[in-house]
User: What shape does this take?
Amino acid sequence: MKNSKSYPFTASFIAMAVGILLLCPLRIYQYFKILEPQTGFYSKIDFSVYAMYAIMLFVAVFSVAVAFANKKNLEIRKISLSPVAGGFAFLLAAFGFVTDAVKCFTSFLSLGQDYTYKFDQTKLQYISQQGGLIVLFEGLFALLATIYFVVMAIGYFSKKNVGYKLRTFALALPLWTVARILMKFKTTISFINVSDLFISLFAIGFTMLYLLYFAQTASEVDDGESYFKMFAYGIPAVVFSLACFIPRVVLLVVGRSDLLCTGYGVELCDVLIPVMIIATLVGRSYDRSKENKA
Assistant: This one.
């Protein structure tokens, strides 16, 4: 007998919206009141810090618990967005990845230019010590991910399923996030105390998990067994990524970029990839009650 229970899409999306609406004002407050822009450390611990931890914990636990508890109620479906909307969402993701690729390649080249000859250190050793090889790999994976989403968009515009043909390119999606995580650990030592790093690690970590299971689903390699995990990890990925992006944009708009911690500026991938995640999750949601009436 077919299970007639519905997956709680509405509750998941509400949790996502509430998380964004609560975290972003808190982060803006923290930038103005308790964050040291030179170091990224808290100058003091007040209510906003505990509130931020509580909201992040709620979003992560709620999304994962709902997805795992209701995985049998989730039907495996193709994205139901129109070819134009779906293709546009993938192009936005591609643009997000290519901007990161350009940033990484530019940083890598500048590291090479900063090198001065030393008897006991080669140019390659210097670049590696500065995290240059990780940056290079991040850029390469971002470029491959760009190609992946451009081809996915073209396939979507032409109403063709090309995901299973891009299995090799799909590996670049989670590997890109792995390189970003390694770079975060390379540049800062205290991820608990450095506020931007703490949230960024959660954002990248959940984005990595989402992209991993998105790639598996799109590549059709696991018969849909990991389908529900896109909802488990996609919701926190969106919330934490936008909690990084939106407050930083607000600071730029109001002319207070001086409050931003060095190395944690505005990056388009922090908003364009979440937009793609939202589109793919919404595109896979459905109303079973209406279907039963039909």
About this structure: The CA atoms of residues 129 and 138 lie 16 Å apart. The radius of gyration is 20 Å. The mean pLDDT is 86.
